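Contributing: when you submit paired examples, paste them exactly as shown. First protein:
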Amino acid sequence: MDFPLGRQFFYQEVHQPDEQICLEKAAFYLALEEYPALDVDEYLTAIDTMAMEVLERLPAEPYPLKTIQTINHYLYDDLGYRGNTDDYYDPRNSFLNDVIDRRTGIPITLSLLYLAIARRIDFPMVGIGMPGHFLIRPTVQEMEVFVDPFNQGEVLFLEDCQERLNQVFRQTVELRPAFFQPVGSRQFLVRMLTNLKMIYVNQGNLSKALAAIERILLLMPQAPIELRDRGILYYRLNRLTEARQDLEDYLALMPTADDAAVIRELLDAIED
């Protein structure tokens, strides 16, 4: 099977050590499947330009909070970026080119743009995959603050994160140290693709949901849940040979899974 050019570029980008993956390039290669005429270099140059304009605005002694304030003023006040609260599940919120063009997105894509600018101005930050709401934070050791790119770059402390979690889940959620561990590049991209997968499943767009899962499996080839979900999508798309293989692989990896009996019934239906 011939893969789209975007898929090939994506594979090349992620098929290297995690710390060498350029997140924004990988994100644009994801978008290239949706927009085959996308000029990736043009958008990378646009991010370079944003970073240069932030550099010009930095004070002579750009201590961390002042740097965050400068990025925030540029992105949200000057350029008008904002979190998309009007249509959160619009798939365009997950494509970085659309985020740049429309100046709106969801937490993870706005975080990606923020991280790309911060890296270019030599202000190291990392992604924080807090459940339900992606954040970023500076890697300065003595700082325990977080930045919320979805909410105008708001600076949060731990107690603020607790409040944000409670808002997202509409109940009190126990704050755990695991919620604030840095997210690696592959994890970051998996979370982006999982968002797209769920959006397309809910829209009934099975072919695009399948494409999202295929790219997740490029990042995590033996992810049992993704093998199961791809097998189910293959079944619904009447690609029965491929469905059988994925579902058998899932059961081999997860023989005692809660849904193992259901998956075996589905395999029996394929055999019939």
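Second protein:
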Amino acid sequence: MTSAPRPGTADSPSAAAPAPTAPAPPGAPDTLLGQLGTLATEAFRPELAEIDRLPTLDLARLMNGEDHAVPAAVAARLPEIAAVIDAVAARMARGGRLVYAGAGTAGRLGVLDASECPPTFNADPGQVVGLIAGGPDALVTSVEGAEDSRELAVRDLDALGLTAEDTVVGVSASGRTPYALGAVAHARARGALTVGLACNPGSALAAAADHGIEVVTGPELVTGSTRLKAGTAQKLVLNMISTLTMIRLGKTYGNLMVDVRASNDKLRARSRRIVALATGADDAETERALAATGGEVKNAILVVLAGVDGPTAARLLEESGGHLRAALAAAAP
């Protein structure tokens, strides 16, 4: 496989054009324009200034190569991410909620991650919440000025009835978005746990939170388009926070989604498969166990493995805080 030619070289369609030099960042340092010029995610890359002249396959290879750097950037922050997960899980075990707050792409990613927790982990819809500056309309269109409002973040959090047991994760590629900063500041003042997830070093968002996670992904293929590498990094981190927190809360048995909510035919089939994988039961025994437990996968596994009835399985799980391994141990003679 050949690598993509570098723009401005003899192998590229732009060989005749001299490679441009990086312009000086515009704007005074104390203005927003000047501040953006200091951010790694906003940096201009002169070596990519002719990419619009490349063949499409070369463009695809170039972009794919850019994306390869994202997992390594996330890996560099794993200790901070793990500390966040343990802190979030401890609070959620006491009834706290996980709240994401962001604008634009960051906000949409938070809403996406939150919306996937109920069907995947049978989480209450209010247990993981995604707030986006401008509200639901901002999921599909730009809401003018919403991301610039700290006050809007305060109103959105107050509408949730924020408590000290909750966790608020402010998400912003730049690490300076007023909505995310306002959410973290307000949550911290209320005693909630706060996390600042950014993609620039030395960010105001990370500094404002109890836990800062700065996944530094560098300049984008398209200058300033942080829906690319920065967005991918944010998605990976949010996946990790929600998924591993749910594992810590007993929402899986090994790597099986034993708290899956069977809300459609695919998930009902998956429920039967999970019970069979966890227990080795045949189809008939799996169906009987699910029927005895109202379709609850975790309960059905306990019925099969512990030889108890449906109500007993429900009681054992309640007493064990929903942890299947603990319930199985309690059921053992």
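If you have annotations for the second protein, write them as plain sentences, like these:
The first helix runs from residue 32 to 36.
Confidence is low (pLDDT under 50) at residues 1-22.
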